[in-house]
């Protein structure tokens, strides 16, 4: 198997598997539709890609020397993910498209930088493909990962938009928001638990 195929398979498995950003994309797709979720998807993709590039050009080595950095990141990330879950869980079931409530580009960007799954994907990819010293191979990896991440997150948002029938079911959106928000809160609690251990 060629390295580029391995990179592609790695990026697909990490991007499409459920995680906090994917749950936000799904929830937003249900609540606001695909088109209005796209800024969040774009922000999350750009945020992840920049994180991957910076990690690959040496951030991983620098941060490994800062005592407690990853533990602090786990706590901050868990709190932010829990906050986003709370916002979803207790959001209004009256779907009026208020611009301030729509998911924003910066929220997607920030959520990736505070998402332990994104950091694990970046660090494990850099280490697995030995990209710390090869900027050319890092460029290949980023070129594969960027569209893969974009398509994967967009697929979650599209899936959500196809589930908008939930809006027509009595209490359907409330139940859906409670479930997806609850999933994010459970993820946040788990992250806090593992960080504390």
Please explain how this structure is put together.
By secondary structure, the protein is mainly α. It contains eight helices and no strands. The longest helix has about 30 residues, at about 35-65.
Order of helices and strands: HHHHHHHH
Residue stretches low in confidence (pLDDT < 50, at least 5 long) are: none
- Mean pLDDT comes to 82
CATH class: Mainly Alpha
What is the share of helical residues?
over 70%
Q: Please tell me how large the radius of gyration is.
A: 17 Å
Number of DSSP helical runs: 8
Number of discrete domains: 1
| Cα distance spanning the termini | 38 Å
> In terms of quaternary structure, what is this?
single chain
For the largest beta-sheet, the strand count, sense and barrel status come to: none
Strand share of the residues?
A: under 5%
What's the layout of helices and strands?
Elements: H1 3-16, H2 20-32, H3 34-64, H4 69-89, H5 105-113, H6 116-128, H7 135-162, H8 172-196
Comma- or semicolon-separated keywords:
197 residues, mainly alpha, Growth Hormone, Chain: A
Please provide a brief summary of the model.
This protein has helices spanning 3-16, 20-32, 34-64, 69-89, 105-113, 116-128, 135-162, 172-196.
């Amino acid at each position: 198997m060629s390295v580029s195929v391995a990179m592609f398979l790695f990026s697909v498995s990490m991007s499409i598997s459920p995680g906090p950003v994917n749950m936000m994309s799904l929830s937003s797709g249900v609540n606001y539709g695909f088109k209005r979720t796209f800024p969040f998807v774009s922000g999350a993709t750009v945020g992840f890609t920049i994180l991957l590039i910076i990690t690959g050009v040496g951030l991983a080595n620098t941060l490994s020397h800062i005592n407690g950095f990853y533990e602090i990141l786990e706590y901050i990330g868990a709190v932010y993910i829990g906050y986003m879950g709370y916002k979803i869980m207790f959001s209004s079931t009256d779907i009026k498209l208020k611009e301030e409530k729509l998911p924003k580009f910066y929220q997607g960007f920030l959520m990736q930088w505070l998402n332990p799954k994104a950091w694990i994907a970046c660090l494990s990819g850099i280490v697995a493909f030995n990209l710390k010293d090869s900027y050319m191979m890092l460029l290949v990896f980023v070129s594969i990962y960027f569209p893969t991440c974009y398509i994967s997150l967009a697929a979650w948002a599209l899936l959500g938009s196809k589930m908008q029938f939930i809006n027509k079911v009595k209490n359907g959106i409330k139940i859906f928001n409670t479930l997806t928000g609850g999933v994010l809160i459970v993820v946040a609690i788990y992250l806090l638990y593992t960080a504390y251990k």
